[in-house]
Every structure is written in C-alpha cells, then in structure tokens.
Design goal:
By secondary structure, the chain is α+β, with helices and mostly antiparallel strands. The chain is built from four helices and six strands. The strands form two sheets. The protein has a four-stranded mixed beta sheet with strand order 5-3-4-6. A two-stranded antiparallel ribbon has the order 1-2. Strand 3 and strand 4 form a beta hairpin.
Amino acid sequence: MQAQRESPRSLRPGPVRTCIGCRKRELAADLLRIVAQTSSSDSVAIVPDPRRRLPGRGAWLHPSSACLSTAERRRAFGRALRVSGKLDISALEHYVENRHEHS
C-alpha cells in the first residue's frame, strides 16, 4: 500500500533543505547556504553564500551559533561538502556573529 503524499503547495511553498547542524528540515529561504572554496594554502575555506550564487556543492545551515557549533562538533562540513583536509570556518563564524548582532 502506498503512503499518501501531502501536496507541497498546501503545506510548504518552496524547496525544503536539511540543516547540517541540528538536522532539522526547513524551507531553504530560512537556511544559509555554505560552500567550500580552496584557498592559496592547503586549507579549504568554508564560506557563507547568502545570495546562493557561488559555484560548487552547497550545504545548508541555520544562521545561528548553536547550529554552527553543532555542525563543527559533528564534523559535518567535510561530509556535507565532500571535502577533506584542514577546514577553515572563520569566514562562516564571522558571518553568523555579525548576522546575530544585527537581528
């Protein structure tokens, strides 16, 4: 027997994504897209993509320090973005801190 599917139009408009920190599903509009960019050194920079325009594989995160620290503790950035090596999340930390101050 096939389970009935809810109509996406009646419940939630727009695409739904999963936060890599808390693992909760939310509308993509409520989450921050992040991408990995290779830097000049051997490290990979994890940067915010608020306009959702940067090239490459993206992952989604609630723009909160709680989800950021949970994702870092779980080592979710490397798995979600399929990168390995030293990950630099300083740009992402800076973005989340400044966003939190202005909200």
